[in-house]
Design goal:
With about 160 residues, this protein is mostly helical. The chain contains eight helices and three strands; from the N terminus they run βαβαβαααααα. It has two domains: about 1-85, Trna Endonuclease, Chain: A, domain 1; about 90-160, DNA polymerase, domain 1. Strands 1-2-3 form a three-stranded parallel beta sheet, with helices on one face. It is elongated, with a radius of gyration of 20 Å.
């Protein structure tokens, strides 16, 4: 069972109280599953995944009770930060021109990752984004800069080498 905790304030760490609640909910779900065995599923482990760092107390508690944590910079291998970097799964929220007032429009139009924007040509993005052209062009440029290995970027790079 995985519980995801999103904090819009990246400076506020996930504390031991959150780990306690997640662990408690995991056990409630596990008990409910054990009462209805006809589903054929087992619940083995609780997880807490968060976009902020966890306090030392939260990590110690999780380690003691067997709750798995994935957070910013924890664990050293397999942290959320490392996963994002290795897979280049940058959310559109990191693009400077994708200010708060444009984010909902991007999300509604299925632009969640910078890669989603970088994978399509500028004309399609301008048409599909629902954002004014000046801002959409800036967002597209920023996405292309941090996602240079997209199929479209590779095709354009190969094409420029042929010229």
């Amino acid at each position: 069972v995985i519980e995801c905790k999103y904090h819009s304030d990246g400076g506020k760490p996930t504390d031991v109280k959150v780990a306690l609640y997640v662990h408690s909910r995991f056990h409630d779900i596990k008990k409910a599953f054990e009462l209805t065995p006809e589903h054929g599923q087992d619940v083995h482990q609780g997880w807490l995944v968060t976009n902020t760092r966890c306090t030392t107390d939260a990590i110690k508690y999780a380690e003691c009770v067997g709750l798995r944590i994935i957070s910013w910079r924890y664990p050293k291998t397999g942290s959320l930060e490392k996963m994002i970097e290795e897979k280049r799964l940058y959310p559109v929220t990191i693009l400077p021109s994708a200010r708060r007032k444009f984010l909902e429009t991007l999300f509604v139009n299925n632009f969640i990752l910078a890669q989603d924007i970088a994978d399509i040509d500028e004309t399609s993005f301008l048409r599909k984004s629902g954002i004014d052209q000046k801002t959409a062009r800036a967002i597209k440029r920023e996405a292309d800069e941090i996602c240079p290995c997209t199929p479209l970027a590779m095709l354009l790079t190969a094409g420029s080498r042929l010229l």
